[in-house]
Design goal:
- By secondary structure, the chain is of the alpha/beta class.
- The chain folds into two domains: 3-254, Rossmann fold; 287-413, 60s Ribosomal Protein L30, Chain: A (2-Layer Sandwich).
- 33% of the residues lie in helices and 17% in strands.
- The protein has nine helices and 13 strands.
- Strands 1-4-3-2-5-8-9 form a seven-stranded mixed sheet, sandwiched between helices. The protein has a four-stranded mixed sheet with strand order 10-13-11-12. A two-stranded antiparallel sheet has the order 6-7.
- α1 packs across α2 (73-85) and α2 (73-85) crosses α3 (114-134).
- The protein is globular, with a radius of gyration of 24 Å.
- 42% of the residues are buried.
């Protein structure tokens, strides 16, 4: 459930003071482009600042272990831009379990003279600032990746210029991206981490979206300050993940004011930032795998295998990986094409996941290590539209959605 704030639509004329603010915003953007960074940012921004967007999604949270959020510097410029553009702004809470827009504000204005228009603009700015102050984590831990996925889906709902603004340390502590699993080790292979996110169907769809990240790597006690190498590794991982979503532009190096976090918020696990020189990499790399229709093919609308022998061969290999890696917390999530009602899809998806579960246990995985078996139906990240450009059902596309996603955590990481 989200709340919506709507103010009146703006008239066509602009006051002198408003024209000055527009000119100032454009001047600051020009300076940022020429210098490669803007006020308060880490040197060398990695993209030309985007134009103001009609639709803006903000992923943020007043959260433990990261600085208190304040509207200053680059963030202030972004908000002024949204007010001038009369944007629709949605806020997504990046705590341990993000769930839909926290609030949506329509920054419209229909003042009948320059004074009233300025007053409404100022109120719109105040509304945005107030939301950021009350945007406090409700659930322990940190899951910006899920919030980013939700924000990207919201932005995709309408054809407009789009901007995703992320105000976060980026130190996620929830699967499938647990930075506390030593992911900031300089020897971590970022490509492997990105591959795990792809396998978990968690890459956000960022087509035609300008992405701006503020505050990556910034922390407060008890989280230890990130070393230079740890910051670089975090940036490498997030750049790899977001680049897979094919954004219009990607600007990840802006900083926010370094200050204490808000008190009284839910706990967030700390992330190790220093490592023994002899360490070879993450001690707790997340395990993800996807059993596709090519691996284990089911007869239409059933949980009956087309080729039991071929399915057992594929699952035997998967079981060997799980046993060898000492994975003792295994989750199976079945998916389906979008055919029939959702309850029926979820039921069928769960039955198919149960078939994979049985094959795993036959192949050596102890049943007690299967933590959960779930049917998602067609509601999962990475779902492919089953209809072609002519609106006709395409069986090959539908088959891509018939999967069982396998997620696991090693015993030593629990």
């Amino acid at each position: 459930m989200h709340r919506t704030i709507t103010t009146k639509k703006r008239g066509s004329s602009s006051s002198p003071s408003k024209l000055f603010r527009i000119a100032l915003t454009l001047l600051l953007s020009s300076i940022a482009t020429l210098t490669g960074c803007d006020s308060g940012s880490t040197p060398c921004c990695n993209s030309t600042p985007p134009e103001c967007a009609n639709r803006v999604a903000i992923v943020a949270a007043q959260r433990a272990n990261q600085p208190k959020l304040e509207v200053k510097g680059k963030l202030s410029t972004i908000i002024n831009c949204a007010v001038e553009q009369h944007s629709t702004v949605a806020f997504f809470l990046a705590d341990g379990n993000p769930d839909g827009p926290y609030k949506i504000i329509h920054l419209t204005n229909n003042g009948n003279n320059s004074g009233s228009r300025d007053t409404i603009d100022d109120q719109n700015r105040t509304n945005v600032r107030q939301v950021l102050q009350i945007l406090k984590a409700k659930i322990s831990q940190s899951n910006p990746l899920q919030a980013i996925n939700l924000a990207a889906d919201w932005l995709a709902e309408e054809d407009a210029t789009k901007q995703l603004v992320i105000l976060d340390s980026g130190l996620q502590t929830v699967a499938p991206l647990r930075f506390e699993d030593n992911l900031l080790n300089p020897k971590t292979n970022a490509k492997n981490v990105v591959s795990a996110i792809i396998a978990a169907q968690s890459i956000p769809h960022l087509e035609n979206i300008d992405v701006i990240w503020l505050g990556m790597g910034q922390s407060t006690p008890p989280q230890q300050t990130l070393t230079s190498s740890a910051r670089n590794k975090e940036l490498e991982i997030w750049r790899g993940i977001l680049s897979q979503g094919n954004p219009k532009s990607l600007d990840l190096k802006h900083q926010i004011k370094q200050q204490p976090s808000v008190s009284g918020l839910p706990e967030v696990s700390t992330v190790p930032v220093t490592f023994d020189a002899s360490a070879t990499g993450p001690s707790c790399a997340p395990f993800t795998s996807t059993v596709t229709w090519k691996d284990v093919s089911f007869k239409g609308e059933t949980a009956e295998l087309v080729d039991p022998a071929a399915a057992k061969k594929r699952i035997t290999k998967l079981a060997s990986e799980l046993v060898t890696g000492n994975y003792h917390s295994i989750s199976l999530k079945g998916t389906t094409a979008d055919w029939g009602d959702l309850p029926g899809q979820k039921s069928l998806a769960r039955l198919r996941a149960i078939v994979v579960e049985r094959l795993l246990t036959i192949s050596g995985v102890q049943p007690k290590y299967i933590a959960s078996v779930e049917g998602l139906g067609s509601e999962f990240a990475g779902h492919v539209n089953e209809y072609d450009s002519h609106g006709k059902w395409n069986e090959e596309l539908a088959a891509l959605n018939r999967q069982v996603i396998v997620l696991a955590t090693a015993q030593r990481c629990q």
